[in-house]
């Protein structure tokens, strides 16, 4: 049976998505230029080896401007991730099944963790920086709250016998960027994605 989530849950999920603050056209262009420069430098040299000074110099802005806009390199990483996270969130809210609406909750859960595992693999250094900027940073982001709510909703539908609040956090725990970084040499990308999908399948299967 397909996913029949109520529209109120869709609204709740959509409400968590972080809308970009409105800004003047010149400020928006400046921000886009900084993010484009940062993305290119990070891709070329690696996130850890690029300084805020380098980004400011390449973008043609003062270092003070860069820090005022983004706070620090972790804030810049979060801003870069924003658009990429929005693409995945959009697919969850209105894309084709099984990631989007229309598939059974269990299938959607497996599709989500698989999609997020690939997302994490492609953006690992950025996600890791944003999640480890300070203690508990991961759990305060709008993105994590969105993922957790989505997983909780699907678990509650697929397995009403489980504590969906607890198991939503439990299923997302192995998707922490710091853990993926630590297991990078031990677990290939495929093995990692297959493992998290199997974990989701075991949680969303028949009631015990």
TrEMBL record:
Key words of the record: DNA-binding
Domain HTH tetR-type span(s) in chain numbering: 28-88
GO terms for MF: DNA-binding transcription factor activity; transcription cis-regulatory region binding
Organism lineage: Bacteria, Bacillati, Actinomycetota, Actinomycetes, Pseudonocardiales
Top-rank lineage group of the source organism: Bacteria
Keyword Chaperone: no
DNA-binding feature ranges: 51-70
Pfam family name, one: TetR_N
Official protein name in the record: AcrR family transcriptional regulator
